[in-house]
Here is the input.
Amino acid sequence: MMAEGVEDEEKWLAAGIAGLQQNAFYMHRALDSNNLRDALKYSAQMLSELRTSKLSPHKYYALYMRAFDELRKLEMFFKEETRRGCSIINLYELVQHAGNILPRLYLLCTVGSVYIKSKEAPAKDVLKDLVEMCRGIQHPVRGLFLRSYLAQVSRDKLPDIGSEYEGDADSVMDAVEFVLQNFTEMNKLWVRMQHQVGHDFWSCRCYSACQSFILLADHELRLAVGLSGLQGPAREKDKREKERSELRDLVGKNLHVLSQIEGVDLEMYKEIVLPRVLEQVVNCKDELAQYYLMDCIIQVFPDEYHLQTLDVLLGACPQLQPSVDIKTVLSRLMERLSNYAASNTDVLPEFLQVKAFSKLNNAIGKVIEAQVDMPTLGVITLYSSLLTFTLHVHPDRLDYADQVLGACVKKLSGKGMLEDNKATKQIVSLLSAPLEKYNDIDTALKLSNYPLIMEYLDIETNKVMATIIIQSILKNKTRISTADKVEALFGLIKGLIKDLDGTVHDEVDEDDFREEQNSVARLIQMLYNDDIEEMFKIICTVRKHILTGGPKRLPFTVPPLVFSSLKLVRQLQGKDENPFGDASTTPKKIFQLLNQTVETLSNVPAPELALRLYLQCAEAANDCDLEPVAYEFFTQAYILYEEEISDSRAQVTATYLIIGTLQRMHVFGVENRDTLTHKATGYSAKLLKKPDQSRAVYACSHLFWVDDQDNIKDGERVLLCLKRALRIANAAQQMANAARGSTGSVTPFVEILNKYLYFFEKGNPQITVDAIQSLIELITTEMQSDSSTPDPAADAFFASTLRYIQFQKQKGGAIGEKYDSIQV
Amino acid sequence: MQEVHDYFKSLCPDLHVTRGEYDEDSRYPENKTLTIGQFKLGICHGHQVIPWGDLDSLAMLQRQLDVDILVTGHTHQFKAYKHEGGVVINPGSATGAYSSFTYDVNPSFVLMDIDGLRVVVYVYELIDGEVKVDKIDFKKTATTRSAH
Here is the structure.
């Protein structure tokens, strides 16, 4: 069983540790009594535990670490010994008498460390000797750990520039040579692991024999065997790769050491280090090693080195095994270089000098060509990294950015819309990069390939991208100022403007849809140009696009367009008439456009919204002194009221809007005004609920009395309205009495009383003190009557009205006189 | 609009809304009254009060709602009136939206500091890119009415 295998390993590890500890114990005793002989004997025995083949790398490491700790103590002892007069050279000889090669070499490295420290021989000589000797171990796991030990103990003793172990002039070269050699050998061992026989008890040679045996054996045995060592080749491969992964840092460490050597400058890196390392990487022909080591090189050495060796580095890429994930390697390289450029703008000229962009571009092109089966995600990722690189390094070269996008388009073409989620996400990130970088949609709009890429996104993602674009504009408060740019922009966001493939998608979430459309509405507000002609063009362009949106979108997009247009009308009012004929924009033209635009709301249908917009337009036409235009808008509003608005509450609100707007109109001649007023009063009187009727009718009284226009102060018509409102209120009382037994609230009466007072103060001669007085008495009587329902709100209202009258009386002057005769 | 509603709620959970003429949401009332400290406040968008923006007509609404302070809108023009019955405040438009009433809509809003019998009205206006703040004091005389 697999579980059994693991259990066995645990047992072996425990046994190894036990053996190690036991020998360590005796070794310590020997150290304490300065018994060199015994120390060597027991340390060798201890190290023999590392000769095992039974452990996985993970477990071997545990054993190795314990040995390592013990060897530190031994090293200290050796140092003491040399101080006590023992010759280090002799010691170096002595340890080579150890029986088995592995313990021998560990001991040798340990002594070597002391040897170098003693400076009795140049560091380079000792190191050279050691690294050569280690060839004696060819078993991958054991060899890797041994050489790792060598690397560890030699780390601080390399003959580097400025180090105390620096010998003559050429010593850095020696240090580099040492590390390179160790690295090369370690890599070879590491790669060999891939082809190594499994370390558990079934060896490969037995495999085929057992296979045939199994075929003949009984079912249960087959099962048992199948589940134990003979997992099948695929399973083995996975296991091996996992083990190799565990060891990779041992190999990679050497590169790290190389990068830390002071004496390794750009020159040396370029001439010696990189070529040697790459040679090993390419020649080992191992996928795992190549991927890991390429990545290691990129991460470990400084970015400026990479810039200067770009040719060499990129040149190695096509030579690697085809199965290596080179795109990730390249992406990471570009990421590093992008960050380098971003953090330090002084280095930008260097990028230009080495022609980094074109080299990378070519390399990517070659890789994509070579790996025909590369999935779309891979291609996009590569170009995404390249684009980020371009944006950081060459922000002013839009043509480079466009080139990258163009290459993407080429690769995507012929594949239809993307289905892969990750790929679409990657494209979104690709397209978002220019937006974030430039903070200005203008620049993104200049990239000719930008909209082409969006064609390959599915509808959902298209919308997502469109939203990102709009958010970017809103966030940066970018003013989109020409009709051409608006056209391009609306092309990009068409996913939000209309249903793309002709079919309506009912599954869209209501809230999401609303948010989308609201953001489009906000966007419309951002489209502006001071120049009137250009602004009109912009409005026409927007209109053209939003009218393709269909009934669900129009209620969101039409209002902002209407208000933008009304603002333009205002601007025109401020300017003089253009003497050069009717080619230019006039308020009339805009109103025509507005009329046609609001009309489209009938397709939704949205009569209430349309009514409000017509009334707004009417007011604007009023301000421009365009009587026929204003009249037309009112007509449209009235038609909607009569034909489309049937909900009672909606009618009430609509009536107030009509009255309120009409009250402010000064452009109408007598006839037109009369017609419209008559209709408005009619609507008021026909509202469903009597109290609503009463209110609306007294509101109409204001239609006959406008403060700033002396020719609209018709006192009689005002009084007629108020009396009519009173009659309706009365009727309402009687109805309530009949229907419910009590007369209902007197509030409408108090309201009308207040209106009487209003016009009384304004000087309407038809409003007499008597009328007011009798109204007050009427209300008082009603409130005290048995059949009335107590209504604290009405009481308070009446009370405050009476207080108001008192206050006016006490004001003195003309007002005081007027109010004098009213008794409360 | 739900987004705006939520935004306001994030500024202050105690939110009171009355219906404007473009609000399709019928759950907002036409007007509302509430008490804060010693003051009764009334809220009404104002498109229901004809003539629009007329002080005397608004004062009538104030009497009808029986409030010390009436908060109203619709015209997008900042106004603060004091009269015998109390105070009428129109904070203007917070976004500077188009209005048929005024050609120069400067975005504005109002904060009221209600303390005992005194209310201080702070007006914030955005004029030519700069925020200008103004202050108006109102004191409620204890004799005008009994405290509610």
About this structure: Residues 2-32 of chain A form the longest helix (31 residues).
